[in-house]
Write a structure and sequence with these properties.
This protein has 52 residues and is mainly alpha-helical. It is built from two helices and no strands.
Amino acid sequence: MKKALLAAAVTLAVGYLALALFWNMGGGGYLGLLVAIAVMGGFIIYFNETKK
């Protein structure tokens, strides 16, 4: 459960940071969302690899 909360918190923080950084660019909201999804995907792969 701790890993899931950590992954969710980091994903929200990175998504918000990316949204703030890319806001003035065209499609900044979409880039923030894309970065957040990529981070969560990385966490899923990492936690599945370390479980074995």
